[in-house]
Amino acid sequence: IFLGGEAMRNIRNILSVVCGYAAAVIGAGFASGQEIISFFVKYGKYSIIGVLLSCIIFSVFAYAVLSVCVEKNIETYSDYLNNFFRHNIRKIVEIITLLFAISTVCVMTACAGEMFFILFGIKKIFGAIIFNAVCGMIFFMNNKKIMGINSILGAIIIFGIIFCCFYILRFREHQVFSNEVKMTVSSISYAGYNLITTGAILAGMSRFLQDRKEAALASVMSGVVLFVMMLLIWTVLEIYYGKINLGEIPMLTMALRQNKVFGAIYGTMLFFAVITTDVSNGFNVLDIASRKIGKNVVVFFMTVIAVAMSGAGFSKIINTAYRLCGYGGLVLVFYVIYNFIKNMNKVENERKNENTKVKLAKNKHNRL
């Protein structure tokens, strides 16, 4: 009523970017609560500061990528990397991205296997195979259509997590923990590995934004949304951590403790999170690896590796592969932010020089 058609379209576009970005970050590890325990809760009640720090990094990184893509009309991550990275460094970034993307596909497969076992009693290996068969078919679909579906599922996951956490938080208990230094390092590495592949999502969705102001708004909103969800999951798990057996998928364990129907609802939402993350990272693997070998071969080997690695266990993969990738991701994140600041200073200096030239020209004209 109060906003025109153009304003409404701008709002929808910004929300699409927020939901798409959130969907890329919210994977099985996030929605299941296993990441929140591994990187935050186990370090104590002050780890909430780490949650806030991670979300600030998420927002800053999003703005660093989105603003440049909007300003220079870039719609692919490869074009974005070409603007900032030399050929050798770009290759290293691609290798880091490829390794993390494959690790994430393995984590999603492990989570799917756990879910099939918990919810349906199906052996984990068969659950992993079924999940990879579904994802394998999706990888042959249109990339742009899939990213649009990711935004929709992202919105469902956001509201689902918030609702489910509030539902569980009807019950309150007391809790006490600590350990600040490790918590800080852990929280930064958490942001690091999550942001390795999200640059591709941000670059692709930058076409929905018109200017840097919208990029800034989408970045801040993304950070706020992620913080609210992480805060709620952190609160639920910090209450029960060390008091009950939370299992491989803590939030699903908590949901099933309420009742089977609520467990099924959370399980469905978690499956959406697994699919969106697996598909996003699977397309990253295809984008990089299919340049050297055929798409069919990449999908086959990615599926075999994911099923084989899923046998290591969901929480073990998160605590090893994700943590190692986190430190590598930090280098990429801070390099992107550094180049963004450097580029902004360059643009500002050019603008000042241009203004100075205009003033000198005017003064010269006036003297004549």
List keywords for this structure.
368 residues, mainly alpha, 15 helices, 0% strand
In short:
With 368 residues, the protein is mainly alpha-helical. 82% of the residues lie in helices and 0% in strands. It is globular, with a radius of gyration of 22 Å.
Query: Mean pLDDT, as a whole number?
Result: 79
Tell me the major beta sheet.
none
Give the overall shape, derived from the CA principal axes.
Answer: globular
Report the sheet-strand fraction. Answer: under 5%
Radius of gyration: 22 Å
N- to C-terminal distance? 56 Å
Total helices: the number is 15
- How much helical structure, as a percent, in the residues? over 70%
Structural overview:
It is a single chain. By secondary structure, the chain is mainly alpha-helical. The protein is 82% helix and 0% strand. It is built from 15 helices and no strands. The N and C termini lie far apart (56 Å). About 2% of the residues have low confidence.
Please specify the SSE layout and strand pairing:
Blueprint: H1 5-25, H2 28-32, H3 34-39, H4 48-71, H5 77-84, H6 87-120, H7 124-138, H8 143-168, H9 180-194, H10 198-205, H11 212-240, H12 250-258, H13 260-289, H14 295-310, H15 314-367
Helix pairs in contact: 1-8, 1-10, 1-11, 4-9, 4-10, 4-11, 4-15, 6-7, 6-13, 6-14, 6-15, 7-14, 8-11, 8-13, 9-15, 12-13, 13-14
